[in-house]
Amino acid sequence: MQGYLYCFTNVSMPGIVKVGMTGALERTPELRAKELSSSSGVPTPFKVEFAKLVSEPKKKETTLHRLLEQYTKRINNRREFFKVSPEIVKTFFDLIDGDLWVNSQEDEGEYEKIEEEEEEEEEEEDKDHTKNVIKKLHRWSRDMSKCFTDGQLIRHTIGVDKTWIGTYDYANNRVICDAKFYTSLSGFVNAHHKENGTYTCKGVNGWRYSECKVNGEWISTFNL
Question: pTM of the predicted model, to two decimals?
Answer without folding.
Answer: 0.47
